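In this supplementary section we document a worked example of the pipeline. Step one takes a protein sequence of length 120 as its only input; no multiple sequence alignment statistics are reported here. Step two produces a three-dimensional model, which step three serialises into structure tokens for compact storage. The input and output of this example are shown verbatim.
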Amino acid sequence: MEFVIVLLFLISIVLLGISFTGRDHFKELEQEVEHLSVSAMQEIYKIKKKMRVFEEELLQSGNGSISQNTQPIINFDYYTKNQILTKYKQGMSITDIAKSENVTAEEVKLIIEQNKRELS
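The serialised model returned by step three reads:
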């Protein structure tokens, strides 16, 4: 009887040791997801940067062909638009808002003009 108890105790210690030394598949999966997330964020940043450069070039080259009465519609994500409007309501200058949100001052002005109804 004592032999069986000692044997079961030794087996439990061995199994416990194996469970600690075994590979953690969830940790590997978590690292892979984190890596993919960081890669996606980098790609999104690069695309946004390229789009800003493209928009600036388009605005510079197309000034003569666009009438002065039309305003381009700028689509920002909900969070960025709300941040800009909140900072404007708090009295921040347009240049300070543009610097803090990494957008141009013209874009900030257009967002404020497009959302004057919300500001009132």
